[in-house]
Structure formats: structure tokens, C-alpha cells
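User: Here's a structure from my thesis project, written as C-alpha cells. My advisor, Dr. K., wants to see whether a designed sequence matches the one we expressed. Can you design one independently, without my sequence as a hint?
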């Protein structure tokens, strides 16, 4: 059998590490993109499968970033760059990489891990559950209108990309304060957001930034590109919205009024709408938004008692959860979750269980967007004591839908 070593890479192996991932996903190598990517991860948080003859043939990275959860934030492992070379598939490398990564992460102070799956069917095997969902909009802007504000509230201004970072960073951080699922950005992450290398434009325009100024300063921004097109009837350009972030309704409405009314355009596309996206209730004809539901971030609980104690719960609960976790046995067993006002405990117990579920279902429900009751209807959660599921499901809910507005 071929010999593989699983370990972090050295600086000399960065190129082969990124090339392995790029080939797996059909990406050409670009020096500027590679440098931006390398700036975002630590060598000690890489994991490579290194073959004795072929070098790096499997990859994985976890980046430490803040993750919004109900009632606060936690440090979270953001997993990315997972790949196996095509010539080394069907040898159990992915399972070895994922299992080793989870085992290593379970020994840190990061109680959860998150990822954007390229193939969702893969990651349920490793205890990840779908924790956020997104609405992808492909809107016909000729048939859409948003109501104007009753009184002028602020104004829009275009900001040069190179000068926009401080403004958009402040708005972004303010907006994510009450939104589970949104991740904080490191300085390297922000540099990547505004870098705008030409090969990432896919024939579209350079990135443009519009900022909304309210009475107290900037309170919203939108970043977008234009894709030129026309036919026999005239211009058919498309606005591709990269980010649209606002801290209040007035800024939100004015930004989208602008995006739907860009000259020469006929469509507006945006891939990161939330399930509670206000656009659905503001536009005159919501069908014209062309919304399509898809899964977003998947979440894996690494340290169950720490994770459950870190989040807030909208109602009191007293329940025993019977958890199965084949990869991290420290999470498995019966846990007594008790929330009474400001008091919260999550401890092992010998009491009979009220509800049984796997760690993947608990991860799906953790951010408040996937209902335990809905998972029970699908046969993924089992109520063991009559009447226990409803209050537990309510306790894991939240007043805002979780959202992730970027692929990392």
C-alpha cells in the first residue's frame, strides 16, 4: 500500500499545496491570488496528505475567525481548501484528513467548525449539519420597484475601492453584531475582499462600491460588478451584487433601489440573500426576484458543553439530550441542558433522555435556523419523552435567521 504522511506543510510546500487544491477545483494558478490566499492561513493550521513519491496529494485548512451565534460570538474553525488529487482518490485519504483535522481541532478553544461544502453529501459523514440557508436572486429589474422613503433620510455616494476599506469594515462589523452565521474578518481577509484581481472578474467590470450616508455617518454599503450584454432589443447588462450590508431599513432600501436602477441593466443577481431578506416584502412583485433556495454554511460541534453554554436561548428549557458522535466520542452520551433565566448549565447525566439526535443534527440547529421539530418530522431527531421536543425546539430558535454572506 502507498505510504502517506498527514502533517502541516512547510513554507517550501505552499505552492504544491495550493496547486493540489487548485487542480481539484479546476482553478488556474495566479501568483497574486496565491499570495492573497497564503496571507489568510497559518501553516500550523494546514493539513496535507504527503505521498512518498508524489508529494502533496491532499489538502485541508482551518482558519480561526469569529462566528456570530445566537446572543454573541465564538472563535470558530473555518474549514476550507479541502481536496484530494484525482490520482489518489478512493484510498480513504479524505476520511483520514477530515478525521485528523477534527481530532486536532477538538483540542482547541474553538467549540465549533464551519465550512461551505462543494458537495454537501460528503460532510454529513463527518458530523457537519446545514446551519444556514441562502436565497440566490436572479431578478428582472424591469418589473421591480421599491417604495421610496417618506422623507429624505440620507444619500448615496460612490467610493473608490482603494479608499473603501475603513468605511465598509465598520458597517460590516455593526451589521453582523446581531446576525448568527456571519463571520468576522481578519485584516488579511479584508485585503482579499478589496483586492479585485482581474482574473477573478470573469469578464465583468471592476468592483464598484456604493456607500449610504445616514445622519450619523455610513450605515450601509453595496459592492457590485457589471456584466455588459446586449441583443437586438438593446442593452441587457447584468448587475452582480457581491455584498449588500446595512444596519437599518432606510439604508438597505436605498441601496437596493440603486442596484435595481443601474443604467443599461436588465437583471440583478445576488447569491447571499437571507431567508428573512427584507427584499421579499419590499418589492412590488416578489416573484420577479427569481429566488432559489440553497444550503449555505454547514456547522460541526467540536466541544458540546462549551458550544451549548456559549449561545443564548430565547426561552427556558430543561431537557436531556442523547447525542451520538462516532468521530469525537467526547461529545457522545446524555447531556442535561438547563436554561432558567440567566442561569445556564450543560452537564453529563445519567437521567433518562428526552430527545435523541446525532451531532450533525445538533450542528444544524445550533445557529437557530434549522428547527429540531422539522428534523424530527424528517426522522432525524427522536422524541423519547412525550412533549419534550416542542420546548427544546423553541429554545434552539432565534429571532433572526442565520446568514453567511461569503464563501471562505
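Assistant: Designed independently from the structure alone:
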Amino acid at each position: 500500500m502507498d505510504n502517506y504522511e498527514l502533517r502541516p506543510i512547510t513554507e517550501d510546500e505552499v505552492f504544491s499545496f495550493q496547486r493540489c487544491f487548485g487542480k481539484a477545483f479546476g482553478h488556474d494558478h495566479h501568483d497574486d491570488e496565491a499570495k492573497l490566499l497564503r496571507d489568510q492561513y497559518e501553516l500550523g493550521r494546514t493539513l496535507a496528505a504527503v505521498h512518498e513519491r508524489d508529494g502533496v496529494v491532499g489538502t485541508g485548512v482551518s482558519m480561526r475567525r469569529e462566528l456570530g451565534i445566537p446572543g454573541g460570538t465564538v472563535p470558530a474553525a473555518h474549514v476550507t481548501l479541502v481536496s484530494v488529487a484525482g490520482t489518489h482518490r478512493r484510498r480513504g485519504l479524505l476520511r483520514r484528513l477530515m478525521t485528523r483535522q477534527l481530532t486536532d481541532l477538538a483540542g482547541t478553544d474553538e467549540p465549533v467548525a464551519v465550512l461551505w461544502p462543494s458537495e454537501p453529501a460528503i460532510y454529513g459523514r463527518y458530523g457537519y449539519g446545514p446551519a444556514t440557508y441562502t436565497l440566490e436572486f436572479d431578478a428582472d429589474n424591469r418589473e421591480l420597484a421599491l417604495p421610496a422613503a417618506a422623507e429624505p433620510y440620507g444619500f448615496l455616494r460612490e467610493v473608490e475601492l482603494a479608499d473603501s476599506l475603513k468605511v465598509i469594515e465598520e458597517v460590516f462589523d455593526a451589521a453582523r453584531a446581531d446576525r448568527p452565521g456571519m463571520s468576522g474578518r481578519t485584516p488579511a481577509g479584508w485585503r482579499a475582499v478589496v483586492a479585485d484581481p482581474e482574473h477573478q472578474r470573469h469578464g465583468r467590470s471592476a468592483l464598484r462600491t456604493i456607500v449610504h450616508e445616514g445622519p450619523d455617518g455610513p450605515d450601509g454599503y453595496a459592492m457590485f460588478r457589471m456584466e455588459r450584454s446586449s441583443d437586438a432589443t438593446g442593452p441587457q447588462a447584468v448587475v452582480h451584487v457581491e455584498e449588500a450590508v446595512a444596519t437599518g431599513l432606510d439604508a438597505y432600501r436605498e441601496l437596493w433601489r440603486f442596484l435595481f436602477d443601474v443604467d443599461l441593466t436588465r437583471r440583478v443577481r445576488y447569491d447571499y440573500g437571507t431567508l428573512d431578506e427584507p427584499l421579499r416584502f419590499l418589492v412590488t412583485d416578489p416573484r420577479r426576484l427569481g429566488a432559489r433556495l440553497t444550503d449555505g454554511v454547514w456547522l460541526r460541534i467540536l466541544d458540546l458543553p462549551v458550544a451549548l453554554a456559549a449561545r443564548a436561548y430565547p426561552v427556558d428549557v430543561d431537557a436531556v439530550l442523547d447525542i451520538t458522535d462516532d468521530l469525537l466520542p467526547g461529545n457522545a452520551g446524555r447531556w442535561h441542558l438547563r436554561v432558567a433565566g440567566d442561569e445556564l448549565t450543560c452537564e453529563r447525566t445519567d437521567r433518562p433522555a428526552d430527545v435523541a439526535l446525532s451531532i450533525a443534527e445538533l450542528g444544524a440547529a445550533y445557529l437557530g435556523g434549522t428547527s429540531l421539530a422539522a428534523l424530527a418530522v424528517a426522522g432525524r431527531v427522536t422524541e423519547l419523552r412525550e412533549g419534550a421536543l416542542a420546548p427544546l425546539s423553541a429554545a434552539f430558535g432565534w429571532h433572526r435567521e442565520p446568514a453567511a454572506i461569503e464563501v471562505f
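When you compare it with your expressed construct, this may help: Residues 3 and 51 are 6 Å apart (CA to CA).
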